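Notes from the 1:1 (GR / supervisor)

We went over the backlog. Supervisor wanted to see one worked example end to end before approving the batch request, so GR pasted a single chain during the call. The sequence is below; no edits were made to it. Supervisor asked that the structure be written out right there so they could see what the output format looks like.
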Amino acid sequence: MLTVKILGSGCPNCRYLEAETRLALDMMDPPIAYELVKVTDFLDIASYGVLSVPALLMDEQLLCAGRIPKREQIAQWARERENHSV
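Structure output shown during the call:
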């Protein structure tokens, strides 16, 4: 199962990244199993070395910070993580 983390305070951009990530992952064919975790505590966010939110991690790998990637990019990252775990 893919573990996806959204790091951020809960601002509009953080919520938008969460929504885009869910849409990207839910629309994948074939579907993949994932767990989405929101990390809002600033100490926890800082422990990842993130200075700018929102940030996206998949299986503990930081993929982007300070921006919202396109759905296609999120899906591509998920496929890459899935292929590496097989």
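Supervisor's comment: The first strand starts at residue 2 and ends at 7.
Batch request approved.
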